[in-house]
TrEMBL record:
Residues 6-126 form the VOC domain. This is VOC family protein. InterPro entries: Glyas_Bleomycin-R_OHBP_Dase (IPR029068), Glyas_Fos-R_dOase_dom (IPR004360), GlyoxalaseI/FosfomycinResist (IPR050383), VOC_core (IPR037523). CDD domains: GLOD5. The lineage of its organism: Bacteria, Bacillati, Actinomycetota, Actinomycetes, Micromonosporales.
Length: 133
């Protein structure tokens, strides 16, 4: 049997890599990186989001790579009140929330926003003890 430990990276297909990098750096504090081959990504914690330019995706790629088709949930280290204040300062509208949800390790509170391609970005903060590892 295979035992998966964690997610290493995700891939977003985007209309404009520079615009995407700017948004994720300014709004979410992700660190832009460029590999030796020139591929661009965004790092945070021990994970990263690789960026593929729509129409010029690296191979292999998703069967139908499309800007705006992703739905990601990112965990905030700080309180959601700080997230909301930062989003307001960045003039990024909150689409929904704060709302209670159940995440991978327990109860959480989330807010939802959209990136420049329309991807749904959920930012959450856990509110109780972790129930799973």
């Amino acid at each position: 049997m295979i035992e998966i430990e964690r997610v290493d990276h995700l891939v977003l297909t985007v209309a404009d890599i520079d615009r995407t990098v700017g948004f994720y750096r300014r709004v979410l504090g992700l660190r832009p990186v460029t590999s030796g081959s020139g591929r661009r990504a965004l790092e945070f914690g021990n994970q990263k989001i690789n960026l593929h330019q729509a129409g010029r995706e690296a191979t292999p790629a998703a069967h139908r790579p499309t800007p705006g088709s992703a739905d990601l949930c990112l965990v905030s280290r700080g309180p959601l009140a700080d997230v909301l204040a930062h989003l307001a300062a960045c003039r990024v509208p909150v689409e929904e929330g704060p709302v209670e949800r159940t995440g991978a390790v327990g109860p959480m509170v989330s807010v939802y926003l959209r990136d420049p391609d329309g991807n749904l970005i959920e930012i959450c903060s856990y509110t109780g003890p972790a129930t799973r590892h």
